[in-house]
């Protein structure tokens, strides 16, 4: 019957089409000519050629050229129901829910509004009886196989299908047959579960995996009534970005292990904030129920994250709720670290500071850290250090690059993602700054950017790089010089970070100097990984010179020159690549004050531990890699009696009776205002500006010059392997290690070699190999890895059971190891 | 052996060379792997993903769309009995029932000796010759219970080996395309514009 109908109507439609063309042809042609003439010769009459006038529900509106009808309508307050359409992904017209009536001169026709762009004189009816009937019909069809289990579904209450069934649905279903059945939720990864019965096949998650993340690990399988989203058997959806699919799923088909069944949407309260897990600074909304953080969702911030988050940032809220949080300050007694009152702890800390000042002067105190906190935390402690005359200070522990990198011509993330040439110098952006990886990948795949990668091993972006220059660790400056013709151009951005923790940062800096030598106009985006490292370094935690930086501080402590070491959220035993040095430093410092959120190896060695408020528990501001300052939310009350770091600095300032503004601050806004007043680069970053600008305020750059760095590395001996130690997304860092859902995803310690190198050693995969370095030996199981060139040994940093760090000597330019089978 | 064997890998590389994009060779390679093993094994799908530089999920997603790719072992002979109108009117129900009895299996399953898989099928486009069935997609017309028995016996005895190759075999004559007709992957530098139906993304295929 239906096929008869369509057969009968098709020719009629075709004639209408033809007639339409014949009648409209001239008009359209005229219109085109008129447009061209206006655009070319009379810019005054048509002020903006990018404006397309269309009629929406009888109203004249101005749409943008090339804009989709659905987007134009939504911008003008005419909401069109939809499921598959997502503004950050390509339209596919999969769900057909956004049918509206459109007249482009051929009469009103039903069209999916996510698949057509606006054209001049277009008439759009989103609420006509025909459009409504079509939309109601689509809802009825989508609900035919959708279980009506909203009361027990995690999505219920915030479900686009549920909401739109009420707002645009027929209210009743005529479908009485048995619904389609599948096994109820099946895990498709360690974090994400899939309920195929609820799935409406909108293609959002699969499109995200393909278009945005580049991890095509989920795909539609089967066909017809059996069509379903599936992974390959035994090949889970192990993407670093899998949590985004849960957020964009328009039904309850995808749920995330850390959140499912924890709360109902109407019990959640939300506040916008910025993720500080790494230094990209993705905007998030922090959601909590009964004063417990339960979920982060990505917020679409156009200059930064486009709504996406990595799984580490999305799920590490578990660390805030961890049982291992420090709830009270601790002081060391004969019985070990024991909880005490804040008064006693701060008095103890003040006494340690006065004793150290009396015994060795301000040069006998070191202050490390600040990158895990807010700008205000770092600023307050830097002010205290200034007042006391402390010179040994740094927000990095030899795991980043010299702070002078922040004085270069800095690029924004947007500039990097639209540059004609993106030069990657150093780290695997996918592992260290995942959302920046999404932006750069998008620039290479969808945009017009060319990626030139300079790295020792393959990285996540190697696949998308036009030129991948491989070099032995320590020889990158040489590689840059030999390939300088690839780096020319007007629009070049260098993304530079620390790619190899087993090599001196001087090697990267020398290579960067070579890049800037080849192209002095290149802009630089510093890819320093720690949450607020740029902020901390910018507001006063940068060392005055190389002789007082993080490593110098640890060296001074190890040499017994420090009376007091203050760890401001720093955990040298885990953070410093040279763990031997860190161990000697903590042993050599006479006294240690640790300000931290969790018990860590380093806090266990402290004399006074001050319990710090964690992410989500304190307000303030944070600075991302491009210098964008955004506001953090204090969504929940602090754990126990923990308090923000800046408050401790202010109280210590009062107790020590130091000069300066610090004694006068009474709220975090006072500190923010003080930063704007005293830090030249932050002059525009006033509390008022931060409230006005949703996407944050770009701090200025205080121009500086690169500190001279000379590559000191030579060629490798043929019988050695040169060591590359890089970060993986999931490691033993406190936020990951204390979040049980993602802690288990850490890959674990191993030494990765090229398969041919493993053969040459006479070993087989999984064997324990002995790595003999200059100062220590380590034993690790071997893994075969094609991403590692021959002659290089790669190992992940800071993993459980990791011993690779013992081989790293912070004074050596590179680390060569002899590998033996045992 | 479930991955492609060495000679088939060579053939696979030749097939891949015919296309400007590696992944265009997926369907021909799925046929090749089914020809080798009689069905498309998970290991073969992983192998194809490696050869084509795509993910196994993309392979299984594409492959499972097609009815004629089998993802479980099937018999040497797959017998499809047509169930559509003309055949149904001329007794395909009875024929199917008889076939089940003769082979001792239910429709949709395989005999224990791995010789026969029996399946119901939709119209085989031979309505004038109903009831019809196909053995490895080779037609048999106006099938009666007796002729079905005869067919099974002949297949068992190997009398039809020259006519009906084992399941998965595509044809006796291998298609050979002269190398100068190959399109091959273009140099990324040469790709400035592409056919309108293929979005050009330089760097995706390297």
What does this structure look like?
- The complex is a heterodimer of chains A (822) and B (206).
- Chain A is of the alpha/beta class.
- Among the domains of chain A are: 51-142, Roll (Ubiquitin-like (UB roll)); 330-400 and 533-617 and 637-663, Rossmann fold; 403-526, Dimethylsulfoxide Reductase, domain 2 (3-Layer(aba) Sandwich); 721-821, Barwin-like endoglucanases.
- In chain A, strands 15-14-25-24-23-16-17 form a seven-stranded mixed β-sheet, with helices on both faces. A six-stranded mixed β-sheet of chain A has the order 30-32-31-34-29-33. In chain A, strands 2-1-5-3-4 form a five-stranded mixed β-sheet, sandwiched between helices.
- In chain A, helix 5 crosses helix 6, helix 8 crosses helix 20 and helix 16 (550-558) packs across helix 18 (579-588).
- By secondary structure, chain B is of the alpha+beta class.
- Chain B folds into two domains: 6-69, Orthogonal Bundle (Arc Repressor Mutant, subunit A), CATH 1.10.10.1590; 77-157, Glutaredoxin (3-Layer(aba) Sandwich), CATH 3.40.30.
- Helix content of chain B is 35%, strand content 9%.
- In chain B, helix 6 runs parallel beside helix 7 (145-157).
- Chain B starts with 5 loop residues before the first helix and ends in a 49-residue tail after the last helix.
- The model of chain B is unreliable at 202-206 (pLDDT under 50).
- The chains are: A alpha/beta (822), B alpha+beta (206).
Task: Write a brief caption for the model.
The complex is a heterodimer of chains A (822) and B (206). Chain A is α/β, with parallel strands linked by helices.
């Amino acid at each position: 019957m239906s096929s008869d109908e369509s057969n009968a109507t098709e020719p009629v439609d075709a004639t209408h089409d033809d007639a339409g063309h014949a009648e409209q042809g001239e008009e359209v042609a005229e219109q085109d000519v008129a447009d061209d003439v206006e655009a070319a010769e009379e810019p005054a009459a048509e002020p903006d050629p990018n404006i397309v006038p269309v009629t929406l529900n009888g109203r004249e509106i101005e749409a943008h050229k090339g804009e989709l009808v659905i987007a134009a309508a939504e911008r003008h307050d005419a909401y069109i129901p939809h499921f598959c359409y997502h503004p950050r992904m390509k339209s596919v017209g999969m769900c057909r829910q956004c049918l509206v009536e459109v007249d482009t001169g051929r009469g009103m026709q039903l069209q999916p509004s996510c698949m057509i762009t606006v054209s001049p004189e277009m008439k759009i009816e989103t609420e006509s009886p025909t459009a409504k009937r079509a939309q109601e019909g689509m809802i009825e069809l989508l609900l035919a196989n959708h279980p009506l289990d909203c009361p027990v579904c995690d999505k219920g209450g915030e479900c686009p299908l549920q909401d739109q069934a009420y707002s645009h649905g027929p209210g009743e279903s005529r479908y009485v047959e048995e619904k389609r059945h599948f096994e109820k939720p099946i895990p498709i990864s360690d974090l994400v579960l899939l309920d195929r019965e609820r799935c409406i096949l909108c293609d959002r998650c699969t499109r995200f995996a393909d278009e945005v993340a580049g991890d095509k690990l989920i795909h539609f399988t089967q066909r017809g009534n059996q069509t379903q989203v599936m992974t390959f058997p035994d090949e889970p959806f192990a993407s670093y970005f899998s949590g985004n699919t849960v957020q964009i799923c328009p039904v309850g088909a995808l749920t995330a292990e850390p959140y499912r069944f924890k709360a109902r949407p109407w019990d959640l309260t939300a506040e916008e904030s910025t993720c500080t897990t790494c230094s990209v600074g993705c905007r998030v909304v922090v959601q909590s129920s009964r004063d417990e953080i339960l979920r982060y969702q990505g917020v679409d911030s156009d200059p930064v994250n486009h709504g996406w988050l990595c799984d580490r940032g999305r799920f590490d809220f578990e660390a805030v709720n961890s049982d291992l949080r420090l709830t009270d300050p601790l002081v060391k007694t004969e019985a070990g670290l024991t909880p005490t009152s804040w008064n006693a702890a701060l008095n103890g800390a003040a006494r340690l500071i006065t004793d150290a000042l009396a015994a060795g002067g301000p040069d006998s105190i070191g202050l490390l850290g600040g990158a895990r906190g807010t700008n205000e935390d770092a600023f307050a402690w830097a002010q205290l250090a200034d007042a006391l005359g402390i010179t040994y200070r740094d927000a990095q522990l030899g795991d980043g690059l010299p702070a002078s990198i922040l004085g270069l011509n800095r690029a924004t993330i947007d500039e990097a993602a639209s540059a004609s040439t993106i030069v990657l110098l150093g780290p695997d952006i996918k592992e260290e700054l995942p959302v920046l990886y999404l932006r750069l990948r998008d620039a290479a795949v969808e945009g017009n950017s060319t990626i030139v990668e300079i790295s020792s091993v393959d990285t996540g972006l190697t696949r998308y790089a036009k030129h991948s220059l491989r070099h032995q660790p320590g020889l990158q400056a040489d590689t840059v010089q030999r390939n300088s013709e690839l780096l020319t151009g007007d629009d070049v951005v260098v993304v530079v970070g620390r790619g190899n923790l087993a090599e001196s940062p001087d090697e990267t800096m020398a290579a960067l100097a070579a890049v800037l030598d080849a192209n002095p106009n290149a802009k630089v985006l510093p890819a320093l990984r720690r949450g607020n490292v740029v902020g901390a370094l910018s507001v006063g935690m940068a060392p005055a010179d190389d002789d007082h930086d993080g490593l110098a501080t640890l060296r001074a402590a190890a040499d017994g020159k420090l009376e007091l070491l203050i760890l401001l959220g720093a955990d040298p035993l885990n953070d410093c690549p040279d763990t031997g040095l860190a161990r000697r430093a903590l042993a050599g410092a006479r006294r240690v004050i640790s300000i931290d959120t969790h018990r860590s190896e380093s806090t266990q060695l402290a004399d006074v531990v001050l319990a710090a408020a964690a992410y989500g528990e304190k307000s303030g501001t944070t600075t991302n890699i491009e210098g964008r300052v955004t506001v953090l939310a204090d969504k929940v009350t602090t754990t126990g009696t923990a308090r923000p770091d800046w408050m401790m600095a202010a109280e210590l300032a009062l107790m020590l009776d130091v000069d300066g503004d610090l004694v006068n601050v009474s709220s975090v806004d006072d500190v923010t205002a003080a930063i704007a007043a005293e830090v030249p680069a932050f002059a525009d970053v006033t509390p008022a500006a931060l409230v006005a600008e949703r996407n944050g305020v770009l701090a200025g750059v205080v121009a500086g010059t690169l500190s001279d760095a000379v590559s000191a590395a030579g060629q490798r001996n043929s019988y050695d392997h040169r060591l590359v130690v890089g970060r993986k997304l999931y490691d033993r860092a406190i936020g990951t290690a204390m979040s049980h859902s993602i802690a288990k995803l850490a890959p674990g310690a191993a030494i990765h070699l090229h398969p041919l190198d493993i053969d040459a050693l006479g070993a087989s995969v999984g064997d324990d190999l002995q790595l003999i370095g200059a100062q220590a030996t380590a034993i690790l199981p071997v893994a075969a890895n094609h991403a590692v060139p021959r002659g290089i040994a790669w190992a992940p940093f800071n993993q459980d059971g990791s011993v690779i760090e013992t081989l790293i000597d912070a004074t050596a330019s590179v680390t060569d190891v002899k590998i033996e089978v045992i | 052996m479930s991955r492609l064997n060495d000679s088939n890998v060579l053939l696979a590389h030749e097939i891949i060379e015919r296309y400007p994009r590696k992944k265009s060779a997926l369907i021909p390679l799925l046929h090749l792997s089914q020809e080798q093993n009689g069905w498309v094994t998970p290991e073969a799908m992983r192998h194809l993903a490696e050869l084509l530089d795509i993910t196994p999920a993309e392979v299984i997603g594409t492959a499972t769309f097609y009815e004629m790719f089998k993802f479980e072992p099937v018999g040497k002979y797959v017998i499809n009995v047509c169930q559509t109108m003309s055949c149904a009117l001329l007794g395909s129900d009875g024929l199917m029932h008889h076939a089940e009895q003769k082979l001792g299996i239910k429709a949709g399953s395989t005999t224990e000796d791995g010789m026969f898989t029996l399946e119901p099928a939709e119209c085989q486009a031979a309505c004038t010759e109903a009831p019809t069935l196909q053995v490895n997609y080779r037609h048999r017309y106006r099938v009666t219970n007796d002729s079905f028995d005869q067919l099974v016996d002949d297949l068992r005895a190997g009398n039809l080996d020259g006519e009906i190759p084992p399941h998965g075999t595509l044809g006796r004559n291998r298609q050979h395309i002269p190398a100068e007709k190959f399109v091959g992957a273009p140099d990324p530098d040469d790709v400035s514009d592409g056919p309108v139906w293929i979005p050009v993304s330089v760097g995706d295929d390297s």
